[in-house]
């Protein structure tokens, strides 16, 4: 049995038995809160996983996801001491300061570069999933049946169960 089937069957059993337990303990309002929370948490988990999987599978193995300078090179050679060309030491101080200012301006990230590096966070799947989560909470509040503890237990069980299944499975 594959890991995906194990995760899906675990989530289905949790939705069923967790909902029944919530209903048995607190009634129909707890059942609704648990199931809305569980459904929302599962959607956020699935959207985040799918967005990450899509980002990883769409990238090539040999090049990074963006055209920004390598962070390790920036840490190792922060001041450009190992560059192939050497600047002449006879330059005056004003010229050196101007060159340094220009170099620092080039290193600033533009908005387009910022969007390239935040692609997983701005995934449409995650935005829709969080929209459904917020809509579920607001709907429960508007019907005056929102129970935060039951909702949070339902929303937290999906990621927790997935982590346990991945940790236990060989």
Question: How does this structure look, described?
Answer:
Helix 2 (28-58) packs antiparallel against helix 6. This protein has one domain (3-58, 67-81, 88-168). The protein is elongated, with a radius of gyration of 25 Å. The chain is an all-alpha fold and 170 residues long. It has helices spanning 3-26, 28-58, 71-76, 93-107, 111-117, 124-142, 148-168.
- The total number of structural domains is 1
How far is the first residue's CA from the last residue's CA? 11 Å
Largest sheet: none
Helix content: over 70%
How many separate helices?
Answer: 7
Which features does this protein show?
170 residues, mainly alpha, 72% helix
Helices, strands, pairings?
Elements: H1 3-26, H2 28-58, H3 71-76, H4 93-107, H5 111-117, H6 124-142, H7 148-168
Helix pairs in contact: 1-2, 1-7, 2-6, 2-7
């Amino acid at each position: 049995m594959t890991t995906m089937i194990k995760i899906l069957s675990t989530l289905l059993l949790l939705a069923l038995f967790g909902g029944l337990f919530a209903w048995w303990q607190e009634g129909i309002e707890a059942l609704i809160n648990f199931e809305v929370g569980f459904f929302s948490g599962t959607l956020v988990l699935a959207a985040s996983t799918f967005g990450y999987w899509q980002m990883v599978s769409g990238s090539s193995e040999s090049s990074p996801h963006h055209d920004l300078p390598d962070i390790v090179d920036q840490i190792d050679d922060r001041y450009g001491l190992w560059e192939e060309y050497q600047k002449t030491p006879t330059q005056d101080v004003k010229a050196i300061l101007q060159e340094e200012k220009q170099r620092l301006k080039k290193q600033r990230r533009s908005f387009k570069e910022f969007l390239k590096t935040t692609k997983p966070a701005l995934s449409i799947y995650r935005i829709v999933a969080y929209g459904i989560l917020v809509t579920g909470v607001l709907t429960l509040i508007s019907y005056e049946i929102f129970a935060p503890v039951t909702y949070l237990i339902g929303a937290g069980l999906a990621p927790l169960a997935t982590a346990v299944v991945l940790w236990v499975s060989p």
